Amino acid sequence: MKKSKDDIIFETVNTFFVTVFFIIVLYPLIFVISASISDPSLVSQGKVVLLPKGLNFDGYRRVLEYDDIWIGYRNTIFYTITGTLISLALTLTAAYPLARRDFVGKNVFVIYFTITMFFSGGLIPTYMVVKALGMRNTVFSQILLGAVSFMNIVIVRTFYQTSIPEELQQAAQIDGCSYARLFTSIILPLAKPVIAVMALFYGVGRWNSYFTALIYLSDRNLYPLQMILREILIINEINMEMLMTEGELEVIHKRVELATLLKYCVIIVSTLPVIMAYPFLQKYFVKGIMVGAIKG
Amino acid sequence: MAELGQGVVVNLNPKPHHNKKSKLKKMLNDYQLYLFILPSVLYFLIFHYVPIYGVQLAFKDFVATKGIWGSPWVGLKHFKLFFSSYYFWEIIGNTVGISLYSLIAGFPIPIIFALMLNEVSNKHYKKLVQTVSYAPHFISTVVMVGMLYIFLHPVYGIANTLIKFLGFEAVDFINKPEYFKSLYVWSDIWQHTGWNSVIYFAVLSNIDPEQHESAIIDGASRLQRIWYINVPVLMPTAVILLILNAGSIMSVGFEKVYLMQTPLNIKASEVISTYVYKVGLQSARYSFSTAVGLFNSVINFMLLVLVNRVAKKLSSTSLW
């Protein structure tokens, strides 16, 4: 079909606005990357606008020497992996009985879980429970709190119901397959897409959160990366001795420049794992949102 | 029935008065299913239901040595204290102000973005814009606010470099209370528009192309087709999301606000969640903080029910 004149005008205007939006989203991201590999004095003079100038990787070299960041990194990797595994174990198993039509007492459980979506004890009562359990200043507070949400259980349940044929389960049960066998050898292998989605939801959430650490941790050795980032980026508390040699420490404007350079670099270093994982898993993300959305 | 086990039991006991027995038998038979669900039940019991039980603190004066149960009842004392406190209206105003602003500015933009992106005819460009637009969603709150601090720095920030270049005075955006809400809301829009449009985009891609073809034959223009075909298709989804958003008007998340707060902008940036944290954990006024939190969740729940009712009347779409 030939495009009319109106169509051409429409598409030009539309593409223009989409492009403006595209640039607004992309520009800050590119700027951070460029600034992290530029000469810091050119950045502070405002001479770096889009592409890096005075290319150097000095910032990253100094980040490598900043011990707090690597302790945080190690802790975050540990919290993310164990926390996600616990979340997956709880979510995937709880969703299965709820997906079965013949599960006696299903409604009771659904009501029990739904209530938790609308009511919670709030900060202080939860804090007191964690305190009473002796979980403050332990890794358990970081990997157990927020381990399951009913919303995610519902998404997984919907996936089980819509994507795993009932006949397959019945056939296995006629052959004398127990529920545990059924779950591990039929349900889980077929649920890979939703497992990927859940791993990402929970994983990204753990990687990016600082709230539970702020509330429950005071031991710096247990701090996740986001808490260290908060010190560097927000409170502007940077351990200069870890960064600079003695001669450099004397020059004040050099310290400010280096602190800013460090900020750009830690943004990249801390966000990279998530951003890198994301193109591979993008198709699952979208699928996951849709499964959840259909059920509402 | 779904499954052989039950089928057999039912056939052996056809009379209704055996139903209870067969149910029990089925439950025993299915004990593994209960083991599956048990860990999550315990999780919610410990981390949700026990704290809900602890909400009674809001009506007591907490004495550490006596515990929650043994502390004396004081009725609505803490609520009255909060309602009459100097900060009450400021905090409520900030909370409602920030979320209304977010809702009004942030709700339509993903819909408009999805409608516009949907009209882009070059497939590769469409895909590229979409992929890039998701990316900021995965940036952590700490990094997001950190970027604001760096970009808006009064001396070194790129925003002020530009302002000075244009011949104006540098502005200390972060510390000025009047900019707080806009910074909060627009940085959120920057971060989440792409992600929030995913769902609308998916709904649009499910539209049957025949609908558009027959509209073209009837002489409908491009804008007419968008307005009369695409927009109505998005409505049910939009209403559901609007209900959910409107239901949380009284809750502004803690993480981002807390990071953006400075002593200078506190007049515009103190919201209920940050206040609960400060009085509760920093000043250890447990009972008072619990009362403020409870007040907040009761209002939230009432709002959700209310908005849901209104939506049901207006558009026949509702949460339940």
How would you explain this protein's 3D organization?
The complex is a heterodimer of chains A (about 300) and B (about 325). Chain A is mostly helical and about 300 residues long. Chain A has two domains: about 1-55, no CATH class; about 55-295, MetI-like fold. Chain A is built from 16 helices and no strands. Chain A has helices at about 5-35, 40-45, 60-65, 65-100, 105-120, 125-130, 140-145, 150-165, 165-175, 180-190, 190-210, 210-215, 225-235, 240-245, 245-250, 250-295. In chain A, helix 4 runs antiparallel to helix 11 (about 190-210) and helix 9 (about 165-175) packs antiparallel against helix 10 (about 180-190). The longest helix of chain A has about 45 residues, at about 250-295. Chain A is globular and about 75 Å long. The two termini of chain A are about 40 Å apart. With about 325 residues, chain B is mainly alpha-helical. Chain B has two domains: about 5-40, no CATH class; about 80-145 and about 175-315, MetI-like fold (Orthogonal Bundle). Chain B is built from 17 helices and no strands. In chain B, helix 13 (about 220-245) packs antiparallel against helix 17 and helix 16 runs antiparallel to helix 17 (about 285-315). The longest helix of chain B has 30 residues, at about 285-315. The radius of gyration of chain B is 27 Å and the shape is globular. The two termini of chain B are about 25 Å apart. In chain B, about 30% of the residues are buried. Residues about 1-15 of chain B have low confidence and may be disordered.
